[in-house]
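Write out the 3D structure for:
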Amino acid sequence: MRPIGIVTDSHSSITQKEAAELGVMVLPMPFYFDEECYYEGTTLSREEFFEKLDSGKKVSTSQPAPVEVMKIWDSALEKFEQILYMPISSGLSGSCSAAFVIAQEEKYKGRVHVVDNGRVSTPMHRSILDALELIEEGYTALEIKQILEDEKEKMVIYIGVETLEYLKQGGRITPATALLGTVLHIKPVLKLDIGTLDTFQKCRGFIKARKTMIEAMQQDLNTTFKEAYQKNEVYLLAASSASEEITKEWVEEIKEAFPGMEVMCDNLSLGVSCHTGKGALGIGCSCKPERPKKKQLS
């Protein structure tokens, strides 16, 4: 039995195939089309998801059932002495808080460590890669949990959306605002910062939205993340619910704006795409976790 394993959910944008390659486990998150429940990457493919979305079916997200969370934990604990459970940020879903409650059950105490470091999508994926590196470096599960949560604020992501329809359905904007925005060709840029998603700027047209996101990221690297950026300890991230062609164009646009930096790009998870719709693009960053001396960890 290996000492530490990692379990996450599909909001991390890690597919089941990628999970097997990394040696982690991914809990498929549920969502609904017209009251019928599907599970990301298992009962509905990405292509089928967008076909249903394009057909006009009403889509909504849901938390995983506690029994499904416990099932994947039990499976992981057959292979690992302890596990780090790294779900979507508590600022975006109640599933993280529910996991904390489940982890207090006797059979999970001291064996399941829930990590809430404000992540979703590519930043969450990157955080899992950080955790795997820390495991290889010999840190304990509790040490890794603290290291990752101490880095909570060292991340940001901007997301530009092509349609206002799904923000309206999710209650983030009113129907009147959605209608006016559509008429005026408004494309909002959203900002994910420490686990909360808010409107950052409203742009006339998607080309302007893309330019705004890149400028915001450049500003952040020269201010908020300046120290880590100067030490080459910033990971540049991207995400997309657009076509493969547009996604490639977006990544190239980012590379041109940030010469010499690698760009890690994921498909936005279906759970996130429920809220952004098709055609969304994102850019962001996270910082390499600081490795404190172990005696400094509480």
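The first strand starts at residue 2 and ends at 9.
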